[in-house]
């Protein structure tokens, strides 16, 4: 099938100046008036307004995303700092636990020694008390009365 013939032309207004460009297809005759544009392509003012709206949306999104990115970076930084502090505290806690275990064992040893010393001192006290009572009582060979000193 041969290609369809397309005619391109310019209509002139009353003063002889070009008013509108038109394209005519052999299959579809185009009747374009000076006030209408080709339906397939939006007018220039639409492109300009669309670009302005798109730029506004883009700048709004950029501001919001920049703000959000800054907030996320701050959160990440704070989270890292907290992580370091937690590790430091965990290390100190492990040291303190180790110290407490040592002190607990040491205290148990001292308690046993103290209980042994108290038991020994009680035994000595009982012995001294018994010896003191023996020295207070004197038996005499005389008849009659015992003497006490």
From TrEMBL:
Disordered: annotated span: 1-20, 95-115, 129-149
Superkingdom of this protein's organism: Eukaryota
Protein name: Uncharacterized protein
Biased amino acid composition, Basic and acidic residues: 1-16, 140-149
């Amino acid at each position: 099938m041969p290609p369809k013939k397309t005619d391109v032309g310019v209509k002139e207004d009353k003063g002889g100046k070009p008013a509108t460009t038109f394209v005519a297809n052999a299959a579809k005759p185009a009747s374009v008036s000076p006030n209408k544009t080709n339906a397939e392509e939006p007018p220039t003012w639409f492109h300009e307004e669309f670009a302005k709206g798109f730029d506004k949306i883009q700048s709004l999104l950029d501001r919001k995303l920049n703000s959000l990115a800054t907030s996320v970076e701050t959160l990440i930084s704070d989270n890292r700092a907290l992580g370091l502090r937690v590790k430091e505290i965990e290390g100190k806690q492990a040291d303190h636990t180790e110290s407490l275990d040592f002190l607990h064992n040491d205290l148990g040893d001292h308690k046993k020694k103290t209980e042994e010393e108290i038991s020994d001192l009680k035994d000595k006290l009982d012995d001294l008390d018994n010896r003191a009572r023996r020295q207070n009582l004197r038996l005499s060979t005389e008849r009659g009365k015992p003497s006490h000193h």
